[in-house]
Amino acid sequence: DAYKKDHVRGFELELAAGMKYASSDKFIKVLGACVNRPNLCLIVEYVKGGSLGDRIRSEEKTPLSVSETLSIAQDLAEGLAVLHPDCVHRDLKPDNILMGENGRPKIIDFGLARDHNLLESMNTSDAKGTPVYMAPEMCEHKASPKVDIYALGLIINECLTR
């Protein structure tokens, strides 16, 4: 069934990304996995600070300062620089960024990620992602690293205006 195939594919992508980018502090660390179907499970590091989305929407905390936003933006851009030679995330958004206690972001959720060289040769009619963070070209089924940069710009704007 299609849902199961998507679920398994997302799990495989998460596991592959976790292993490939394990040496970078810009991504959540995958510590282990259960690969016995149907009980697929990833064991990842605990990141205490919650998501950037939670931080932006928090009524209890003061809004992010310009310097905090710039630091977050720099870390995310550095993470994308590590990712983009091989891969496009395709679902970068505040809820897919966890904030460590030290205020450093970690990119999570590689379930929609794709090898950008493969994207050029495949039908990407699965314009999946979160619509508000999707670059216009995603609606035309054209994904490239630029779609993640577009989402990063929206995230920076959201950090500064909430």
Automatic annotation (TrEMBL):
Q: Which InterPro entries match?
A: Kinase-like_dom_sf (IPR011009), Prot_kinase_dom (IPR000719), Ser/Thr_kinase_AS (IPR008271)
GO MF annotations in UniProt: ATP binding; protein serine/threonine kinase activity
Output the Pfam families linked to this UniProt entry: Pkinase
Residue ranges annotated for the Protein kinase domain, each copy included: 1-162
Q: Which residues form the signal peptide?
A: none
Report the domain of life of the source organism: Eukaryota
- The protein's name is Protein kinase domain-containing protein
Native source species:
Tetraselmis chuii
